[in-house]
Amino acid sequence: MKKSRKNLLVATAAFLSLSMSLGMPEKSRAGQDAVLPPFHAPIFFPVTEGSASRLPGATLLPNNPAFDFQGVPGWIQGKKYTNQMGVTIPKYEILVIKGSRVRDNTVTIPAGGIYFDSSPARGEVPMTGSADYFLGKKYYFVDYRARIVVRKNGEVDAKHWTGVGNHLYRLLSPPIPKVVPNPVLTWRTYDGVSIRPWAVTQRWEDSHQSWANQTPMTYLQGVISKTEKGKVFYRTLSGTAIGQEWWATRKEFFGDATEGQTFKTPDGLVTIGKIHSSGKNGTVSVTLHPVKGRVRHFVLRDESSPSLPESSSLRGRMIAIDGPLAVVLWPKDAVRDHKARLWVYGGVREQRTNAFFGTLKGWKYFPIACPIAHHIGGMIYNSRPLKLSAGQSVPLFGRYAWLKLVSVQGQKVLFEVGSHNQWTPLITKTGNIDSVFGQGRAVHGILSTLDTTRLDLDPAVSTIQKP
Fold it and tell me: Are residues 9 and 149 in the same domain?
């Protein structure tokens, strides 16, 4: 009981902190003909119905995984990065293996069963000078396209994960009349970030059945039509999703630019034209002349709104991207005295969800959105199954890591993971090689989802220190 109350307090504190971006609650709209989640106005992201991109093996969890909190040797663990807003965020690189099985002296890992996870300690948004690390390399966060996905007539039960947007729900506790009138759901992202239980904003289609008015804390919201034993049926249930992101490998400039100033980059020229600073909202003319491609002109508008940089529409007026070049205005009062505070980025690339990561073949990218649609991580996963025989080593993520199957004896497996000519301790396991290497939000979420605080989850798992 104490543990449950502690978990509930942790969840409550988390979603209260997230709600700061969503404003004050509105009156309930239960019983309306058009049953939609009670989103606040303005909504920072577009709302669509239907499904979002799915990850292979999305509902799989590591089965009795071996945990190595030291992480893969040479990978980033707790590296601190301070953005232009003065916010310092630790960064982590995680390796997860799930869904693996041993058969005929061979280990098979399904598509989506092994992934790298860039896991910042909190959410990231553009227009802040934020950066993340992917495969050891720093990338600056330029822009992204997020949305709220609404699924109609969905079912959530206690045995299966239900996907909505890029989120997964499962019933943790059914409604208890006069105690907890609404069902309690457990929630997680595809990479494992989770708070258990998660207080999804819920209301009943029939406003007389239960609570008619709940504060919409995040974009994870549902309208309940009916319940059965072990099941809850939703007229609508929502989640967030990210379809594409833009990342830059170089920050060419940050500061106050003046009219006529030109920035020469390996990708081409960026010229600052007319800066108009009279009135409430100034404007900045920008010309991007890439080495390859046509010249393009943009007029960026210095918006003033407390919803920046969350608002997709406002960001669109303050960010110019053309191929490998980008210019981003400072998110508030960028234009003053005929100067414009801005970033110039080079090496910009668009990374689409479920597309190959850069030039890596066989490895695809999947961004992770939090309940208010901030970027909270990025996965690079195997798009094809992997098979290993005893004594075989396979490169992972373009040789950023290696997985070595040392021996197989029936269902007993001995394996190790390495990078940069360093290896983890040898791990022995029975039946699979499911494991988690590193720390970060996703790792703690996996622990929470597995509902344990013990680190020795499987007594059959042990590590062997090499001499």
Answer: yes
